[in-house]
Amino acid sequence: METLDNKTRSNRHFGMGIFLLVIGAIFLLRNIGLSIPFWVLSWHTFFLAFGLLIGYRKNFKAGGWVFFVILGGVFTLKDLIFFDISQYTTALVLIGVGLYMIFRPKKDVQFCDFGNRK
C-alpha cells in the first residue's frame, strides 16, 4: 500500500514539475524578447490546462474536469479565431455538454449489492 502512495505522489510531483518548468520557460522566453502570443499566459488557458490535467489524472472519467475544459476552451477560441463567435458560444457549449452526457462512461451504481455475497 505504501509503494502505491509513493508512486502516486511521485507522479504528481513529476507532473507539477513539468508544468512549472513549461510556465517558467515561457516567462523566460517572453522576458528575453521572443514574441509569445498573449493568450498563452491568460487565465482561460490556465483553466484549459488545469481541466486537462484533472481529466488525465482521473483517466477522463470524472466529470469535474469538463467544466474547466469547456470554459477555458471557449474563451481561448475567442482569442484565436478572428471573427466574433459570441453568438455561437451558448449553442456550442450546450452541444458539448450534450455530447459529453451521451458519450460519458457508464457508471454501474449499486446501493445494495446482495448478489455478490459469499
TrEMBL record:
It comes from the Bacteria. This is LiaF transmembrane domain-containing protein. Keywords: Membrane, Transmembrane, Transmembrane helix. Residues 16-107 form the LiaF transmembrane domain. Pfam families: LiaF-TM (PF22570). InterPro entries: LiaF_TM. The chain crosses the membrane at residues 12-30, 36-55, 62-81, 87-103.
